[in-house]
Amino acid sequence: MVCSAIASAQSTLDDIRTRGVLRYAIDPSGGAPFAMPSADNPDVLTGFEVELMQLIGAKLGVRVEPLTGDWLALVDLMKSGRADLAINGFEVTEERALEVDFSAPYYVYDQQPTIRASDRARFPDFAATRGDAAQARAFVPVATLNGAASVDVLLEFGWPREAIREYDDGLAPYAELKAKRVDLVVQNSIVAEYYAGGDAELINLAPLGKTGHYAALFRQEDDALRSAFDGALAALKASGELASLYRRWKIWTPEQESIGLVERSENAPSNDINLNADGASVARVFSWPAVFWALAKACVNTIILTVLAMPLAVMLGVLLAIAMRSPFRRIAWPARAYVVVVRGTPLLVQLYLVYYSLPALGLWLAGQVPSLSAILDVQAALTWPAFLVAIIVLAGNYGAYEAEVQRAGLDAVPEGQRKAALALGLSERAMLWKIELPQGFRTVLPATINDLNSMIKDSSLVSLIAVPELMQVALGIGKATFMVPTVLVVAAAYYLLLSIMADAAARRLTRAREPRISIGRFAQFGGGTP
Amino acid sequence: MSARTVLAADGVMKRWPNGRVALESVSFSVDEREIVAVVGANGCGKSTLLSVLAGLESVDAGRVQFRGTPITVPNRAVRLSRYDQQALSAHRARVGLVFQQFHLFPHLSVGENCMIGPRYGLQKAPEVAKRLARAALERVGMHEAFDRRITELSRGQQQRVAIARALANEPEILLLDEPTSALDPQRTREIVALLRALTAECATAMVIVSHDLALVREIADRVVLLNAGRVAATLPTEQFLASDEPLIQAFLSQV
User: Fold this and answer.
1) In angstroms, what separates the C-alpha of A329 from chain B's closest C-alpha?
2) What's the pLDDT tens digit per position in A46-55?
3) What is the CATH number of the domain that holds B148?
4) Are B234 and B224 in contact (CB under 8 A)?
5) How high is the pLDDT of residue A161?
6) What is the ipTM of this complex?
7) Dihedral sign computed on CA atoms, order B76, B82, B84, B90
8) Cβ pair A77, A62 in contact under 8 A
9) Are the CB atoms for A469 and A302 separated by under 8 Å?
10) I need a surface site. Which of A91, A112, A273, B229 has the fewest CB within 10 A?
């Protein structure tokens, strides 16, 4: 067991050296200053972790490539072997250590309380936000990042769970604070510095002295890779390069010395010692043309996805509809089961399962059936590219809905039409393809166009599996520039435009063959026999 | 049954799933060039008989023969082999059925409606199917409407296209269900002239189900009176119209 683990660990590092590329999982929509789309070119990632990885890559002699995905999915990106490691403000905790291995820490953070500037008199210090100790404690509502160490710290200070509101990203708590839905935000100092530090409406109180560490995540069997990473990291700490990087991003604090960072005068910029300077000034530049262009480019992915997935979904739906109507149970029942299961489970779960669980299944299979892995690399065979998975899952999911739509269309074809077709000597198959399907398809065309519209919007879910698309890019830019609502409105306008274009295209495409069906007169021909 | 017999029903019995009798030992035959009118009160089984003859409905007993070959239609008890299925389709293609409600295909043009039988029923090449469709439309005087939509046509024009669609397969026998019920007297005369010409020029036999005694008198050689699923009388048209048999008298007085 141990031997095989070491063997596979060796191979991961060897693989990286052979292909010359180290892939790291990171979420650009999670926010600054960790990783975000660059302001002048939103296709390029920037952030102190992105730069840290570039330094590590230079030390290891390989190119580094970010693999972007939703923050919650980063661990699975790494576990499924699509990325070699994950790095994105992961706090070192005991629970996480059960599942993954941590690198040496690269940053020390503290817990930072933030209040509205107008509440300065009400809350002179953090203790005041917890109410009067002598009387009953009155904890103010507090906002923080979902799943972060801040939650544990708040619980430790006695906050009741119901007073803690958790948000999916670092920016939202401050928006809530300004909107007076909460009176306090507690987040990791680095996040607080970036989002609240330069904001005149907000004040950062003294840090709580509850420090913790950020570290990169590795698969537990990849010891060799982790050691190589730690070696490169130690060199960066000792040479002063890392301290210089942190200064440039204005996230340097003296605590960093506790994990071995050394400041060297030749590397240290002479100005910029003040932690409270506007650390985000670089990223906060908001360039409208760049944003429009970046979102337009993100649209292309959304369009390609829909253009490929929707015809597949309709074809699958037609086949399923035919199967469901079959008099043979062996054909009809599997089709019905497929429709029930796929329609009854969330698209998000299906994406997740196909993208992350298939490679894991392959790994497990390879372990269970060694003879199989002699023939082919099972894990590689089940590790499909993200774009392919996105198309397959979207088509498979919408195919189930289309199956019911197309079935309704086939059921709506009047009995007289079938009789007329058979009377002319058509086979059942010719009748299906020449009479029933064309008529059924036209009857349910509005429902199919509805599905097309939903798919355009549902395609935003694929950012979960690292396919960049409109929503993810919009959120990333919005958070980096503190203009989430504005950018989302722009993204919504793009979606609206796509939807209108899709509508027109679908109608045009189907009108090419058959100009008009008047439902009223249609009924005239469809009347039953007397 | 002679060599000139095109289609023959022999002791055909048909019950509906609810047990009601639709046809009870119906026997009769149609010869080449012959026009047989099937008459009777509503619900006497006229339309069912046409469906059975066209190979669309199965029978519970008896048999239908086309040119001496028995026709088997699948039902709950009979499942056809691929070979029998093809034979059945071939039979249907050689029998032209014109529905009372036409059942034209609204998603296809007039020409395509007439091409689909030759193309997919007779398995002809597209050019041949197009030629047959044109010829059939020409015969009913609708060839100029080849590219028009079904929905753009009047009722009388639709009746003609429905006949042309059946004719495009060059059937040996034409089965018509109430061909004049939806038409005014002028259009009725046109259809009658058309049907007469068809029998004269193409030797096509016909079975016409109709309430229209004027039509029957005009073109039928023979009349079959159905009563409650049974053949009550089979007589040459003049004898039928002059008959003093109580059942015939009862029918004639109702119309």
Assistant:
1) 16
2) 889 999 999 9
3) 3.40.50.300
4) yes
5) 83
6) 0.93
7) positive
8) no
9) yes
10) A273
Question: Which DSSP helix (H) or strand (E) runs through A145?
Answer: strand A142-145
The residue written with tokens 């399923």 in the block is A320
Does residue B56 come out as left (phi exceeding 0), alpha (psi in the -120 to 50 range) or beta?
A: alpha
Q: Best of A328, A418, A424 to disrupt the B interface by mutation (most B CBs within 10 Å)?
A: A424
Rounded to whole angstroms, the Cα distance separating B58 from B13 reads 10
Would residue B22 count as lying in a domain? no
Contact status, residue B7 vs residue B175, Cβ threshold 8 Å: no
Count of domains forming chain A: 3
Contact of A327 with chain B, judged by CB distance below 8 Å, is answered with no
- Smallest Cα distance from B98 to chain A, Å: 8
Residues paired with residue A397 on neighbouring β-strands, in sequence order: none
Omega into A33 within 30° of 0, i.e. cis? Answer: yes
pLDDT band for A347, please (50, 70, 90 cuts).
Answer: very high
**Amino acid symbol at B152:** E
Residue A12, both tokens = 């991961």
**Beta bridge partner(s), residue B45:** none
The region that residue B209 occupies, defined by phi over 0 for left and psi between -120 and 50 for alpha, beta otherwise, is beta
Is residue A14 assigned to a domain? yes
Q: In 3D, which of A218, A217, A227, A223 has the Cα closest to residue A5? A: A223
pTM of the model: 0.76
What pLDDT band is residue A169 in, cutting at 50, 70 and 90?
confident
Backbone angles phi, psi at A111, to 5 degrees: -95, 130
d(CA A110, CA A524): 77
Q: For chain B, what is the domain count?
A: 1
Query: Closest chain A residue to B147 measured between Cα atoms?
Result: A514
Question: What's the mean pLDDT in A294-312?
Answer: 89
Chain A interface disruption, residue of B44, B76, B101, most A CBs within 10 A: B101
Determine contact, residues A6/A223, Cβ cutoff 8 Å: yes
For A489, the enclosing helix (H) or strand (E) is helix A484-511
Q: How far is A448 from chain B (nearest CA, A)?
A: 18
Q: Which of B125, B145, B212 is nearest to B176 (CA)?
A: B212
Say what the pLDDT of residue A279 is. 40
